[in-house]
Design a protein that fits this description.
Layout lengths: L2 H19 L2 E7 L4 H6 L7 H8 L4 E2 L6 E12 L5 E12 L5 E7 L23 H6 L22
Antiparallel strand pairs: 1-3, 2-3, 3-4, 4-5
Length: 159
C-alpha cells in the first residue's frame, strides 16, 4: 500500500475512535413506568396489598409512617466522563390512610429535583477550629490517660 493511503486510513481510524469517545450515554434508573398500570390504581378502591400486586415494591417509602410510597423513574444522559444530566424524571407518590386504603396518586416531574451545591471545599462546622498541627499532634499524651476511657484507664476497654 502506498504511504498516503496508509496515512489517510490511520487518520480516518483516529477520527472514528475520537468521535465515539464523545458519544452520549443514555441511562435509565429506577422504576419502569407502565401508564396503564399506574392509571389503574384508584383512590378509595385500592389498598396497600393491591398496589403492591399492581405496581410492585416501591422505590422508597416515607420515613416517618407507612402513609406514602414513591416510585421514581429517571432518564439521564452524559458525554464521556462528565456528570449525568437528568433529561426526564417521573415520581409517582401513592398516599394511604391509617387503614391502608389509597387516598391519592400524584405524579411529579423533574421540576421537583432539589439542587444542592457544596459550600467551598470544606464543610463549615460549629466548635473550635483546629490547625494542621493540632490534628497531627493532638492525641499525644491523651491515649491511656486517666479519665479519657483509653485501654490503660480505669473503666476503659483494657479490663
Amino acid at each position: 500500500m502506498p504511504f498516503p493511503v496508509r496515512l489517510a486510513g490511520c487518520a480516518a481510524l483516529l477520527v472514528a475512535l475520537g468521535s465515539t469517545a464523545c458519544a452520549p450515554m443514555k441511562t435509565h434508573q429506577g422504576y419502569v413506568i407502565d401508564k396503564e398500570l399506574v392509571d389503574s390504581v384508584q383512590p378509595g378502591v385500592d389498598t396497600r396489598e393491591s398496589v403492591l400486586q399492581t405496581l410492585g415494591r416501591p422505590t422508597l417509602t416515607s420515613q416517618f409512617n407507612q402513609g406514602e410510597w414513591y416510585y421514581v423513574s429517571r432518564d439521564s444522559r452524559n458525554f464521556g466522563y462528565s456528570d449525568p444530566k437528568v433529561r426526564e424524571q417521573t415520581t409517582i407518590r401513592v398516599r394511604f390512610d391509617a387503614s391502608g386504603n389509597v387516598t391519592a396518586v400524584d405524579k411529579m416531574g423533574k421540576e421537583m429535583i432539589a439542587s444542592v451545591d457544596p459550600y467551598g471545599k470544606k464543610t463549615p462546622t460549629l466548635g473550635r477550629k483546629r490547625s494542621f498541627f493540632d490534628d497531627l499532634f493532638g492525641n499525644i499524651g491523651t491515649v491511656g490517660a486517666p479519665g479519657t476511657g483509653g485501654a490503660g484507664a480505669p473503666g476503659g476497654s483494657g479490663q
